[in-house]
Design a protein that fits this description.
- The protein has one domain.
- The chain contains three helices and no strands.
- It has helices at about 5-10, 10-40, 45-65.
- It starts with a helix and ends with a helix.
Length: about 70
């Protein structure tokens, strides 16, 4: 994916772009979890697994930003 801003920022921009993509991908499973909780139901394992995987990826990217 070509992104002018990300390329101008170098490697840091690419990481920030990936973090933004993770945020976008988190919206649907997060919404599903919140709706289930509001309804007094248990969220699906798939939604929880997706959020966990996305958060693990984001944590790895954030650690790369700090180094």
């Amino acid at each position: 994916m070509e992104n002018r801003i990300a390329s101008q920022l170098g490697p840091r921009g690419a990481i920030l772009t990936e973090l933004s993509i993770i945020d976008i991908r988190s919206a649907r499973p997060l919404r599903a979890v919140l709706i289930a909780q509001a309804a007094g139901q248990t969220p699906t394992a798939a939604d929880l697994q997706t959020l966990t995987a996305l958060e693990e990826g984001a944590a790895a990217l954030r650690s790369r930003l700090g180094s």
